[in-house]
Write a structure and sequence with these properties.
Elements lengths: L8 E4 L2 E4 L5 E6 L4 E7 L3 H16 L1 H4 L2 H17 L1 H12 L3 H21 L7 E2 L5 E9 L2 E5 L5 H14 L3 E5 L6 H12 L7 E3 L4 H9 L6 E5 L2 H14 L3 E4 L4 E5 L5 H13 L9 E7 H15 L3 E2 L14 H16 L3 E5 L1 E2 L13 E4 L6 H4 L6 E7 L2 H8 L7 E5 L3 H10 L4 E4 L19 E2 L6 H5 L1 E9 L2
Parallel strand pairs: 7-8, 7-10, 8-9, 10-11, 12-13, 12-19, 13-18, 14-16, 17-18, 19-20
Antiparallel strand pairs: 1-2, 3-4, 5-6, 6-22, 11-21, 15-17
Helix pairs in contact: 1-8, 3-5, 3-7, 4-5, 4-7, 5-6, 10-11
Bound molecules: 1,4-dihydronicotinamide adenine dinucleotide and magnesium ion.
Length: 483
């Protein structure tokens, strides 16, 4: 595929232009290690211009749009995304190595975010508050202003959709800094938004390095809210940068999410979720359900069922559209392979592994899906986010033990609970420290309507769903005395 636009150009104030000094970065196709194209390497000054443009748009046409008008243009972007779905799917597959079906699902999800947030733009209401005699008090929900969005590479379309969709719905303008490994669909999204009639300057896209464009954006005094999804380490830097300017941040920093299976669970229903929740997107999912906590009575049976499924999993290039594609980059492949090697060297038992297709290009970033069994709960592989297709199985005896294990990492993003006992479902749901609990299902990555975010090192703030709109807006209280 020829990239259907000049990928070296960034978008500032409605103008597609080269980054300062025409600097670029190489884009590598992780399926074969080949150079795909180049993207602009945005600078501090490029970010500065983008922030100024976003502020101008806020002071100008976008600030005067009614909520209904904002909703209509966001909805229209969603419709246009579906018109361009084949292009978006192919771009994503080439750029990040997603198997075609998964890339397509992400494009559909991005359209759905626009549909959801387009529809909700005019439905966020303030309140009236009973106060002292002679007063009328009410609240307004207003935009923060210029919002910064620093996006990772694992679900570029979904995360762009949830961040930008919510921010625009509440009347903010946006400066978007996609991950250096995943810029093509963000650039295409901006072109689609333009075509749908989004006024210039409302969405600016500056590609580039995290330490350059990303750091410039997160520390810019003209930014009024930052949403960040990515690693804990960079999340800390973002929070510090936002702290210097006293602006709110939403941090979504991944996790080590458990799926808990009790003896009475419907194991056949659970099986696809147990496996897919961990290996979907080659395990590069913040909410991947990678810690499989299994009650002793069904431990061997569940391991056996998972092994038979995992051993059939196939890994191949994005266009082959198998169960797993490559990881995002050679760097990520090394990181994940080190975890596997560490597991083996420390004496962990591999229960099952999938297969890498023979015809995979040797320069591709392929890693074999792997299930380790009987993993001590404090083992590195049971505690750290791996971001690859690696799962660990841990046995437990009692409900109390299951809860302690589930809560036994520094993260708290998602938990899955598999049991037919209704009282236990709710007891566990309350006892677990996490932002989302799934009972008898598991929703890694999905759920446009469902508020999403973590506790602990998984971050704070809620994205997705209607709840996100409160984060993308600020409450003003108006107290009128009329006697
Ligand atoms: P990262 O946290 O470095 O990158 C995420 C985004 O932050 C990218 O857009 C990057 O350009 C930007 N960034 C990097 N340094 C920055 C800085 N100093 N200031 C501002 N922005 C900056 O994540 P990376 O290195 O790509 O992946 C490493 C690990 O992070 C993964 O193995 C995984 O564990 C975790 N991760 C979690 C994600 C999630 O969904 N929660 C998504 C991506 C990575
Ligand atoms: Mg790439």
């Amino acid at each position: 595929m020829k990239i259907p636009f000049n990928s070296e150009q960034i978008l500032i104030n409605g103008k597609w232009q080269n980054a300062e000094n025409n600097k670029t970065l190489d884009v590598i196709n992780p399926s074969n290690g080949e150079l795909l194209c180049k993207i602009g390497r945005g600078s501090f000054n490029d970010i500065d211009c983008a922030v100024v443009a976003a502020q101008d748009a806020l002071n100008g046409v976008w600030g005067n749009y009614s909520a209904m008008e904002r909703g209509r243009v966001i909805t229209k972007i969603g419709e246009k995304i579906l018109e361009y779905i084949d292009v978006l799917t192919e771009l994503e597959s080439l750029d990040v190595g997603k198997p075609t079906k998964q890339a397509r699902a992400d494009a559909i999800a991005m359209a759905r975010y626009m549909e959801f947030y387009g529809g909700s733009a005019d439905k966020v209401h303030g309140h009236t508050i009973p106060y002292m005699d002679g007063y009328t008090v009410f609240t307004l929900r207003e935009p923060h202003g210029v919002t910064g969005h620093i996006i990772p590479w694992n679900y570029p379309m979904q995360i762009t959709g949830r961040c930008v969709g919510g921010a625009l719905a509440m009347g903010n303008t946006c400066v978007l800094k996609p991950a250096e490994d995943a810029c093509l669909t963000a650039l295409m999204f901006a072109r689609i938004a333009e075509e749908a009639g989004l006024p210039k300057g409302v969405l600016n896209v500056v590609t580039g390095l995290g330490i350059e464009a990303g750091a410039a954006l997160s520390s810019h005094p003209g930014i009024h809210h930052i949403s960040f999804t990515g690693s804990v380490g960079i999340g800390k830097l973002i929070q510090k940068a936002a702290g210097n300017n006293i602006v709110p941040v939403t941090l979504e920093l991944g996790g080590k999410s458990p799926q808990i299976i009790f003896d009475d669970a419907d194991l056949d229903a659970a099986l696809p979720f147990l496996v897919n929740g961990g290996i979907q997107n080659a395990g590069q999912t913040c909410s991947a359900g990678t810690r499989i906590l299994i009650q002793r009575g069904v431990y061997e049976k569940v391991i056996k069922m998972m092994c038979s499924k995992i051993s059939l999993l196939k890994v191949g290039s994005a266009i082959d559209d198998l169960d797993l594609g490559p990881l995002i980059s050679p760097k990520q492949k090394i990181v994940v392979e080190r975890y596997i090697a560490h597991g083996v060297e420390s004496g962990l038992k591999i229960a099952a592994q999938g297969l890498i297709s023979d015809d995979c290009p040797s320069a591709g970033c392929y890693v074999v899906p792997t299930l380790f069994r009987d993993v001590p709960p404090d083992h590195k592989l049971a505690q750290e986010e791996i971001f690859g297709p690696i799962q660990v199985a841990i046995p437990f005896d009692t409900e109390e033990e299951a809860v302690n294990l589930a809560n036994g990492t520094e993260f708290g993003l998602v938990t899955g609970v598999w049991t037919r006992d209704g009282s236990r479902q709710l007891r566990i749901a309350k006892a677990i420290k996490a932002g989302q609990i799934f009972i008898n299902n598991y929703g890694a990555g999905g759920g446009v309507e469902l508020p999403f975010g973590g506790v602990g090192k998984s971050g704070f703030g809620r994205e997705k769903g209607f709840e996100a709109l409160y984060g993308f807006s600020v409450l003003k209280t108006i107290a009128a005395y009329h006697g």
